[in-house]
Amino acid sequence: MSDLETFRVETRAWLEENCPPAMRQPVRSEDDACWGGRNAKFSSPDQKLWLDRMAARGWTVPDWPKEYGGGGLSPAEAKILRGEMARLGCRSPLQSFGIWMLGPALLKYGNEAQKQEHLPKIARGEIRWCQGYSEPNAGSDLASLATSAEDMGDHFLVNGQKIWTSYADKADWIFCLVRTDRSSKHNGISFVLFDMASPGVSTKPILLISGYSPFCETFFDNVKVLKENLVGELNKGWDVAKYLLGHEREMISGMGLGDTAKFLPETALKTVGRDEQGRLDEPVLRGRIALFEVRAAAFKAMAERFMDELKAGKAHPAQPSMMKYYGTELNKARHELIMAAGGSDALEWESEASKGGAAPRAWLRTKANSIEGGTSEVQLNIVAKRILDLPSA
Amino acid sequence: MPLFLDDEQTMLRDSARAFVGETAPVSHMRSLRDAKDPNGYAPALWKQFAEMGFTGILIDEAHGGSGLGAVEAGVVLEEIGRNLTPSPFLATAVGAVEALNAGSAAQRERWFPAILAGDAVAALAIDERAKHRPASTALRAERSGNGFKLSGTKRFVTHGHVADLLVVAARTAGAAGEMDGITLFAVEKGAAGLQAKPERLADASLAAAIDFDGVRVEADAVIGEIDAGWAPLTRVLNGVRVGASAELLGVGAGAMDMTVGYLKERKQFGQTIGAFQALQHRAAHLYSEMEVARAAVLKAQQLLDAGDARAEEAVMVAKAMAGLATTLAVQEGVQMHGGIGMTDEYSIGFYMKRGRVLAEMFGDADYHADQLARRAGY
Q1: Probe site for chain B from A8, A383, A387, A392 (most B CB atoms < 10 A)
Q2: End of a domain among A95, A113, A145?
Q3: d(CA B149, CA B154)
Q4: Residue B261 burial (CB < 10 Å; 0-12/13-18/19+)?
Q5: Which residue does chain B place closest to A295, by CA atoms?
Q6: What's the pTM value of the predicted model, to 2 decimals?
């Protein structure tokens, strides 16, 4: 047996023994996911057990180096682990902006002390991070941001406002873009880290159309940030930001992968029923679901290819934009269909049967997918210019 | 196995791209069409395909082939698609070879040398109606002496009028609509009672309607087991469906390349039209659809080559997705070319016509989506 086959067999056995059955169900609501942090809330003892077991093996971040809390797996081994987790339906043990976004940026741009300090805590889910990028007047035009960091010798003094800061009210630390030079748009931005418990930081949740408040307005009033928390070079934060955005897009594109192959038809069968031949008794809806599932299955292959190319260094650097665009548009289409399949059941907003309106709230939430992390239009601009090499106006 | 071409497959792709692009570019197809060529392909070119080793890609090494798989066959088919090359490759080197691989040693010895040499062309006589539905096979094969007598009509048989070998799906038991009771036959050219009537299609290719008027075949013409032809037929269909998907990718990619090239060169309103955001967004969307289709096709090819149980569904996804993406590619191609795209002189319209034929062949996106839904139980 090859080394990889041995690894597969052992991994399968370990997962079967260690992944609690409750952690083999899809996450069905925001409260049901594990985000870790200083004030971590676990929805069940199994959720904590699963996180602890995976973190102990470094498998919350399987391809990070072992010295930073990772699993030290090769790309081929990491792919096998993903495949085996998917086969068993294992949940991801930890949702984390630290894993998806900050970690890769620190691995590339952080100094040794920053890696030692932050990466293991991310891997174990001890610190929950949020991202301070968008500002009220700098959305898609991110580089026009104005939040300032004034050089005070041994520290910066940060003043300004961020918006759309996901879970800022629940986060322990923030990775944040600040302006350190007003004379240059892109070359006057720096990338800093600081504790959300620092004096001068305040947050205010923004109520969304889904009735939830995952996003916040975040205010900085003379926040003191030690210089050791500058990542990369002063005024060169845009490079870190772009690198991190690639990972953010990769993460958001994963939304296109939601597993509806059973859920969507079952929902429709429950509300519509079957015809005499046993088929969904609404042929147009059935056809729409079937054609959607074709696209979803094809996108799943695309995601696999993208990961393989990324790990092998073969992916076009702008490909995350394509993935983000396609994945989010697909996810919106999926939730439109879930609403259609659910009929009036899917309209209930508060009832117990509807799990507190899970379907319509999730449907509304997906509408942000093609806005956050760079709008669909921004992604298409990037693909047109950087992949298809079309001219600028 | 990572989901991209390995080094050897990339080398094969490069040599196929150079070879097909040089020997059979779109002008080759145009000249055959203009000459109203009665064969529907160029025999001399088919011999060159054989010399390149392409006809033996799916034939094992013991028989003189290269023993490769669906990925490699797809690499060649993509270049055929990109150049709109009329070729018996899909039906012969993929469809018939897969049938014979499921057949007897005698059948392989009878046909493999001729296919390897580029001397034989095969055709697949499967469809009987305007929409692909192989389980509805009604053409009868009745026992007669120590063989069978075939009666009925097949349609949409590419190269059917010139084929040396016809792979025929016939009903030996059961009723139309059932998978059981179908038997696969290898029928040779010139059999008494066989009449092929070629019709030219929109893309200038020729497809025959073939009448079987009590065509006699011996028992050794049966491919696989009597009444259990669904298994070898499935093998053939998996091969040609994923092959047609690869050819579709080539058609779509060829159309997209032409279109993006045109966007960079055509000027209107005082600037290159590719600078207009409205067109950039359409082009970028098209690129995304084509990339997703490409991933689905490679996934299906790899699963087929690995003998994975999930391969058949992956092939259906691939054929449906390639059909959707390439249909978009040719539509956007004609639209973005503007008026010139509607002219016969310009080639983009040829891509539209070829894309339509391939999208229909061996089941369109709707057919495959429906099949996937049935399998999923809804």
Answers
A1: A383
A2: A95
A3: 15
A4: exposed
A5: B321
A6: 0.92
| Cβ pairs A/B, distance under 8 A | 147
Structural domain including A149 reads: 129-237
Contact B368, A294 (CB under 8 A): yes
For the CA atoms of B243, B248, B249, B253, the dihedral, rounded to the nearest 10 degrees, stands at 150
Contacts of B373 (CB under 8 A, 6+ apart): A265, A279, A280, A286, A289, A290, A293
CATH number of B7-120: 1.10.540.10
Query: Least CB-CB distance to B299: which of A76, A290, A301?
Result: A301
Chain A nearest CA to B111, separation (Å): 36
Q: Are B209 and B254 in contact (CB under 8 A)?
A: no
Q: What are the b/e assignments for B134-151, b being 16+ CB within 10 Å?
A: beebebebeeeeebbbbb
- Number of domains making up chain A: 3
A191 touches A231 (CB < 8 A): yes
Which residue in the block uniquely carries the two structure tokens 């029928």?
Answer: B187
A346 vs chain B: nearest CA distance in angstroms? 20
Per-residue pLDDT of chain A (393 residues; tens, 9 = 90+): 689 999 999 999 999 999 999 999 877 666 788 999 999 989 899 999 999 999 999 999 999 999 999 999 998 899 899 889 988 989 999 999 999 999 999 999 999 999 999 999 999 999 999 999 999 988 778 899 999 999 999 999 999 999 999 999 999 999 999 999 999 999 999 999 999 999 999 999 999 999 988 899 999 999 999 999 999 999 999 999 988 887 777 777 666 676 667 889 999 999 999 999 999 999 999 999 999 999 999 999 999 999 899 888 899 999 999 999 999 999 999 999 999 999 999 999 999 999 899 999 999 999 999 998 889 999 999 999 999 999 997
Are residues A221 and A270 located together in one domain of the fold? no
